[in-house]
Amino acid sequence: MSVAIIGGTGDEGFGLSLRLARAGQDVVIGSRAEERGQAAAEKAVGILGSDLTGSMDGTSNEKAAASSEIVFVTVPFAGQAEIYRSIRESVRPDAIICDTTTPLATAVGRPAWQVLTPWEGSAAEQAKAILPKTVRLVSGFQTISGHALQDLDHDLEGDVLLCGADVEAKATVGELVGKIPNLRWVDAGPLSMARVVERLTAVLVSVNRAYGLREAGIRLTGREDWGRPASP
Amino acid sequence: MSVAIIGGTGDEGFGLSLRLARAGQDVVIGSRAEERGQAAAEKAVGILGSDLTGSMDGTSNEKAAASSEIVFVTVPFAGQAEIYRSIRESVRPDAIICDTTTPLATAVGRPAWQVLTPWEGSAAEQAKAILPKTVRLVSGFQTISGHALQDLDHDLEGDVLLCGADVEAKATVGELVGKIPNLRWVDAGPLSMARVVERLTAVLVSVNRAYGLREAGIRLTGREDWGRPASP
C-alpha cells in the first residue's frame, strides 16, 4: 500500500513524508511541478539516509494522487480548493484521502491565530464538496506541528484526531499514525467535527506565541489507549 | 478572597465548588433560589466532611455574585443570557468573572456533540456583551468534565485553557486552578479564542460517546509547565 503526500514540499507534508518513510511506508511526494516533487523526494532520501526503510519517490500532484490508495493533502487553505480540483480526476474512486487543512485566516492576509469559516463549515467538508462521492474522506493531523514532524531527533508528543464518516478509512489512516513512534490516534467523530478540530491549529498558534514555542500540541486524557473504538 | 459559583447546583459548578473548597478556598454557591443554593452548600459540606478546609455557603445567584471578587458562571447555554442579566447589577465593578459555558446545541434540542454559533462568536463574548464593561471576563473550564470534578477520589487529568483580554485576571483564575491537585492552566489567548476552545466540549462529548467514557479531557504538549507566560 503506497501513500501519496500532495503538497509534500511544505512543512507538514514534507515532515509527514519523512516520518512515514522512516516507519517503513512507501511514500510518493507530490508537488505542483513534477521536478519539485522529485527534488523533495531526493532531499528526503538524503535526510533519512539509512533510516529510509520504505521507498521514496517524487512527482506531480496528479500522478502522486493516481499512484496511491491513501492520499494526504497538506496544502494551505488558500490553495486547497484549486489543488482538489486539480487531482479530482486522478484520484482512485475508492481512495482514502486525509485532509490536513486548517482554514487559517492567513489565506486572506490575517493572522494564523484566526480562522475563516468555509461555506461547508470546515476545510474538510469543502474538500468533500469538490471530490468524487466515492472517495473516502478523513480529516486529521491539524494538531501535529510541521516543525515537530521534521524534527526527527525528537519523538512526537501529541495525538492525531481523526474525523470522518467512514470508520474503516479512519482506522486505515490510524494504522499509519500508529507506525510513527509515540503517536496515537483518536476517533473524534463525523467529518463535521472537523469544524472544531481543524481550528485547534489556531489555538495552538496562539499558545505557541504566548509561550515562545513552535510545536505545542494536544493529547487526550481519559484513557491510555485510543485507536479504533469498540463497535457500539 | 472568596469565590462565587453561579449555577453551583449543576454538575460543573457543584464539582468545581467541591474541588475549590477542598483546596482551602472560601466558596459561595449561587442558585436561582436561595434555598437551593443553601441546600447545595449543605450537601457539599456533607460530602467533603473533614476535607473541607475553606468555608462553604449557599445563597441566591445575585447575592453570591455580590459577595465575591471572583465569580464562576457555570450554567447551560440556554439560560446563560438570562443568568447574566440577573446578576449584572450585583457583580462588583472590578470582579473577575470566569465563564465556563459551551454553546451546545442541546439548548435547542439538538445533540451535545453539536454547537450553536452565538451572535458575538462565542458564549464568552455573549457574556461580555451583557456584562458591565468594567468587569474582567475570562473564559475557561470547558474541557474539564463535571463528572470528573465531582469524582473526588480521582485526580483530574486535563488542562484548563483560559481565554481573555486581561492577563492579570487570567493569572488570578489560574492561581485557583493551581490549587487543585494535578490541574494545570494554559493561557490560550484573547477572549475571541473561546470561539474554538469552548467548542472542544462538543469534541470531547463525541470522543466520550465513541469510547464509552464520561470524562475525556485534553492536555497540552510542548512543555511541562504552563501557567503564566513570560512577558513578551
Could you walk me through the main structural features you see in this protein, from its secondary elements to its overall organization?
The structure is a homodimer of 232-residue chains. Chain A has 232 residues and is α/β, with parallel strands linked by helices. Chain A has nine helices and nine strands. A six-stranded parallel β-sheet of chain A has the order 3-2-1-4-5-6, sandwiched between helices. Chain A has a two-stranded parallel ribbon with strand order 7-8. In chain A, α1 packs across α2 (34-48) and α4 runs parallel beside α5 (123-130). Chain A is globular. The interface between A and B is large, with 40 and 40 residues.
What's this, in brief?
The structure is a homodimer of 232-residue chains. With 232 residues, chain A is of the alpha/beta class. The first copy, chain A, contains nine helices and nine strands.
- DSSP, total strands of chain A: 9
Fraction of residues in H or I helices of chain A: 25-40%
Structural class of chain A: alpha/beta
Subunit organisation of the chains: homodimer
- Biggest protein-protein contact in the assembly: A-B, 40 and 40 residues
How far apart, in Å, are the first and last alpha carbons of chain A? 29 Å
Let me know the largest β-sheet of chain A: 6 strands, parallel
N-to-C SSE series of chain A? EHEHEHEHEHEHEHEHHE
Given as residue ranges, the uncertain stretches of chain A (5+ residues, pLDDT < 50) are none
